[in-house]
Design brief:
The chain is of the alpha+beta class. 25% of the residues lie in helices and 37% in strands. A six-stranded antiparallel sheet has the order 1-2-4-5-6-3. The longest helix has 17 residues.
């Protein structure tokens, strides 16, 4: 092994983010069951997507706010766990800005804004395929180092 860490998988932040995300997807029945897909992940960032189906709409025929929150929360989860330390949400807020309907493709993009000690702050924007903002989410995270990181083992 080299002394510069090039052969150490933990020394590659992108590889760490991808490895953790793959394990999280493997173990997360909830996101798979809802139809949420991981599109991209990297250190401190992630994108998830959801095609709105009949099962996702409320009595008004528009996407249920719970699914919008869930889509944003999924991106947030991948982003805040991307550093390889088990991290959970300590809170989250969402602003619903536009309705979405059956057939629309939504994408949530999470970006790390601050990471101080065990606490993190993440912003997530949910957009339509046409780029219209549907919701804005802000998530707060807390690292839990004693909780084992997800693995495929």
């Amino acid at each position: 092994m080299s002394t510069n860490g090039a052969d150490d998988p933990a020394a590659d932040p992108q590889a760490t983010a991808e490895r953790v995300a793959k394990a999280m997807v493997h173990h997360d029945e909830a996101i798979r069951g809802a139809g949420i897909r991981l599109v991209d992940v990297g250190p401190g960032r992630a994108r998830t997507a959801l095609t709105i189906e009949e099962r996702h709409v409320n009595g008004h025929g528009i996407v249920h706010g719970g699914y919008l929150f869930f889509l944003a929360d999924a991106a947030f989860s991948f982003a805040c766990n991307s550093h390889g330390v088990s991290t959970v949400a300590s809170g989250g807020d969402v602003a619903f800005l536009r309705a979405a309907r059956v057939g629309e493709e939504l994408e949530a993009e999470a970006v790390e804004r601050a990471l101080v000690g065990k606490s993190g702050l993440y912003d997530v924007t949910v957009r339509t395929a046409a780029g219209q903002v549907v919701a804005e989410f802000r998530g707060r995270s807390r690292a839990v180092p004693h909780l084992p990181a997800p693995t495929l083992d």
